[in-house]
């Protein structure tokens, strides 16, 4: 399987996120991608290539123009105030308040974000756009006839919606690739999100659409980030009714429960008649993940790859989360090698 990778991911290297009431070192760090790339090479998964540049157009098919402009200029506005440390928001609009874009950078950070865990840095825009290019270059390979490709995206994307960032995500790599796949002729795209966290951004981007089916297995929003989306009752709306399927699982869930949900999600993908598949490949379901509460073991990731392969669809794997850095490469690449068997 071809891997697409860009060193530009290093440009996103935040110092700190707010966790448990304390500023702590970012869990989403450059070493994550290094470990995955190392494993790709160790097992000889296949060729590793650099991304092509697709520009802003495919991004604007998914994200709002004012949001994209904000991301592109946020660091300049922040540093113009003499600040050289990471930019983090401090407060948000809630029920009953206005939803208007403020004029000043501190207000804009709040307006366009949903958490204080996602620092904007000097290199954020370049890293996030490189990550999009990695996703789209993987798609090119599949459009060129490959059965699958692995887009080793970093920063991740599935928490980013049309008009907001958060959850370590700025631009939604998987959603941009799914949209590009539709624009290049796919009839119906399925997105299967196996990251530990609900892919709130991806769900919300496609929630009212029938042409992209979104399904996700994740920590129950009653207990887990992002808390405000990911319930089983969310099945899509308007023309998209029936084109969204969530499988929330309680803290402590192991592969017995998780693989049952995977089987149901896969059956739904088949029933939907998808002809293209994007996998949001997070491996923070691992038992040793420092911020997550599922109990998957490294061997289980082989079973995930096998089940996905049984769908028999052209498949683009897009890297999302996974914070047990020593195991992230083993777990992610286990999915990919088993898919290829
Ligand atoms: N107590 C992804 O996996 N905050 N994002 C966690 C920990 C946010 C995860 C706080 C987690 C975001 C792509
Ligand atoms: Zn995650």
From TrEMBL:
Keyword list (alphabetical) reads:
Hydrolase, Metal-binding, Zinc
Query: Histone deacetylase domain: which residues?
Result: 28-336
Cofactor field? Zn(2+)
Query: Which InterPro entries is this protein grouped with?
Result: HDACs (IPR000286), His_deacetylse_dom (IPR023801), His_deacetylse_dom_sf (IPR037138), Ureohydrolase_dom_sf (IPR023696)
Sorted alphabetically, which CDD domains does this protein's record hold? HDAC_classII_APAH
Domain of life where this protein originates: Bacteria
User: Could you tell me which Pfam families the record lists for this protein?
Assistant: Hist_deacetyl
What PANTHER family would the database entry show?
HISTONE DEACETYLASE 8, HISTONE DEACETYLASE HDAC1-RELATED
Protein family per UniProt: Belongs to the histone deacetylase family.
In Swiss-Prot or TrEMBL terms, this protein is called Histone deacetylase family protein
């Amino acid at each position: 399987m071809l891997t697409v990778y860009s060193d530009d991911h290093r440009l996103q290297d935040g110092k700190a996120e707010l966790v448990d009431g304390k500023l702590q070192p970012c869990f989403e760090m450059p070493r994550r991608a290094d470990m995955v790339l190392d494993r790709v090479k160790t097992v000889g998964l296949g060729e590793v290539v650099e991304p092509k540049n697709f520009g802003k157009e495919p991004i604007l098919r998914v994200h709002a123009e004012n949001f994209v402009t904000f991301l592109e200029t946020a660091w300049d506005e922040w540093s113009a105030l003499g600040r050289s440390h990471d930019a983090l928001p401090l407060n948000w609009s809630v029920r009953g308040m206005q939803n208007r874009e403020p004029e000043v950078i501190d207000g804009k950070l709040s307006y366009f974000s949903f958490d204080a865990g996602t620092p904007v840095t000097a290199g954020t825009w370049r890293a996030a756009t490189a990550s999009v290019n990695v996703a789209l270059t993987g798609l090119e390979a599949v459009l060129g006839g490959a059965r699958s490709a692995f887009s080793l995206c970093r920063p991740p994307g599935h928490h980013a919606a049309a008009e907001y960032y958060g959850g370590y995500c700025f631009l939604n790599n998987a959603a941009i690739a799914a949209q590009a796949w539709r624009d290049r002729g796919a009839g119906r795209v399925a997105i299967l999100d196996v990251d530990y966290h609900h892919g709130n951004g991806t769900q919300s981007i496609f929630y009212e659409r029938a042409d992209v089916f979104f399904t996700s297995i994740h920590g129950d929003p009653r207990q887990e980030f992002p808390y405000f989306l990911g319930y089983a009752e969310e099945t899509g709306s308007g023309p998209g009714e029936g084109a969204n399927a969530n499988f929330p699982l309680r803290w402590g869930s192991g592969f017995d429960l998780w693989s049952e949900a995977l089987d149901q999600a896969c059956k739904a993908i088949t029933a939907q008649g998808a002809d293209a598949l994007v996998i949001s490949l997070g491996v923070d379901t691992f038992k040793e993940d420092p911020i997550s509460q599922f109990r998957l073991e490294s061997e289980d990731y082989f079973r995930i790859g096998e089940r996905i392969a049984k769908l028999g669809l052209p498949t683009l794997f897009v890297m999302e989360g996974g914070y047990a850095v020593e195991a992230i490469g083993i777990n992610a690449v286990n999915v990919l090698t088993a898919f290829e068997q």
